[in-house]
Design goal:
The chain has ten helices and 16 strands. With 402 residues, the chain is of the alpha/beta class. It has two domains: 6-139, Rossmann fold, CATH 3.40.50; 148-273 and 306-359, Response regulator (Rossmann fold). The strands form two sheets. It has a nine-stranded mixed beta sheet with strand order 2-1-4-3-5-6-7-13-16, with helices on both faces. It has a seven-stranded mixed beta sheet with strand order 14-12-11-10-8-9-15, sandwiched between helices. Helix 3 packs parallel to helix 4. The chain is globular, with a radius of gyration of 21 Å.
Length: 402
């Protein structure tokens, strides 16, 4: 029987809290068994209902199917030192392949890939880099990138075509992946306004500075709704839980992120999705057959069905499957050119005629110190192999999984 463990790593020390899905308290106090697959997250853990949960579900499903053990480590603060502490503990517990979830682990991944050459590392949502923003995937590591701007575009377009005129984008921390969602959202809304040929759209745009739900996010979201915002694109892990509660209280709507979040509330009209589970499974398949694609980057986009918009559990009143299918077809063909970055300009430059974007606070988050967009993350996304995932070599594009 596989045992699942939460391991919380503090900045100062590593303490192990062991939980099993069944069995007695005495069993829970036993020494942890060797775990081959590891997932390291920030403090939100695998119960964020979004990005981390999708990665964890894919790991547990693959592990159970293939008789492989697994474990998750939650790092308080998501710092480099806490991440490296977790990697060290994971190695001591027999880890072979370690997934690091999120851009906050870019430098930790870069250090770890050099320090532990006998381990495999997978950085989800980013590419390993040093402190000088030099990006590098070593032979024992890989990065995974998604075309979030495409998923965001779908969400913005659908919201306007469904009749909403006052939109909100609330990001978590201003990481490149979150920014891309927002940039696409503005472009999609602008395209829909142009297509409809009438009506103006207002977009309130801000970052909360966290991926964790809080009372402040709840109250800020309620204020947005009270001021006229009809639907908020909640783009930041579990902050969607707070926005959903605000929407329920105010009789408003929201859009989820990363995975289908329709179960959060009846207020969720759709979710902008990226297939995190597919990415994790693709990489584990290659690892399991001794074909780990080190030194390369996996890219997921509309071309290989790596992103999309939740339609099965959507609660639209006007936007429908036919309109969605047409949009996806245009996106896959390259007919739609969507910007994934703004070259240092304001997001307001992405707004088309009839669209007004009002930025609250800094576009780099509350601290004004958001992550820089990496050169690696601004590369053109590769098509990839739809069955096993597209590992795109950073230099010559020859890393496609077989």
């Amino acid at each position: 029987m596989n045992k699942r463990f939460w391991i919380i790593v503090s900045m100062l020390a590593v303490s192990l809290l062991l939980f099993t899905g069944c069995g007695s308290q005495e069993e829970a106090q036993e020494e942890p068994e060797t775990s081959e697959i590891i997932l390291i997250t920030d403090q939100t853990g695998v119960e964020d209902g979004s990005f981390h949960k999708a990665a964890w579900d894919a790991i547990t499903a693959f592990g159970d199917e293939n008789g492989m053990t697994y474990q998750t480590y939650r790092t308080e603060g998501g710092s480099e030192s806490a991440c490296l502490d977790a990697v060290r503990e994971a190695k001591n517990q027999g880890a072979k392949i370690i997934f690091l979830a999120g851009s906050q682990f870019e430098t930790a991944a870069h250090t770890a890939q050099d320090r532990y050459k006998d381990l495999y590392f997978v950085l989800l949502d980013a590419v390993p880099r040093d402190d000088d923003y030099n990006y590098e995937t070593a032979a024992n590591s890989t990065g995974v990138l998604f075309a979030e701007e495409q998923a965001g575009y779908l969400a913005g377009y659908a919201a306007v075509m469904d009749g909403y005129r006052n939109l909100g984008f609330l990001g978590g921390e201003a990481f490149p992946s979150v920014k891309r969602y927002g940039y696409g959202f503005v472009q999609g809304a602008s395209a829909a306004v142009k297509e409809r040929g009438s009506g103006n759209v207002n977009i309130t745009y801000s970052y909360s500075g966290t991926f964790t739900a809080s009372y402040k996010i709840l109250e800020d979201s309620r204020k947005w709704y009270q001021d006229g915002t009809e639907v908020i694109f909640a783009c930041g892990g579990s902050i969607g839980e707070a926005v959903a509660k605000a929407a329920d209280k105010e009789g408003a709507k929201m859009i989820g992120v990363d995975t289908d979040q329709s179960a959060l509330s009846e207020s969720v009209i759709t979710s902008a999705k990226k297939d995190i589970g597919k990415a994790v499974t693709d990489i584990l398949k290659n690892y399991h057959r001794n074909n780990f694609q080190g030194g390369s980057i996996y890219n997921y986009s509309a071309e290989n069905d790596g992103i999309g918009l939740e339609m099965t559990n959507a609660r639209f009143t006007q936007f429908d499957q036919t309109a969605y299918d047409k949009l996806m077809k245009d996106m896959k063909s390259g007919k739609l050119a969507i910007k994934k970055d703004i070259g240092g300009d304001s997001v307001t430059t992405l707004a088309g005629e009839g669209v007004k974007v009002t930025v609250i606070g800094s576009e780099e988050g509350p601290t004004g110190e958001g992550d820089k967009d990496s050169d690696a993350e601004n590369e053109e996304d590769g098509e990839g192999d739809q069955e096993d995932g597209g590992a795109e070599n950073e230099e010559d594009g020859d890393g496609e999984a077989e």
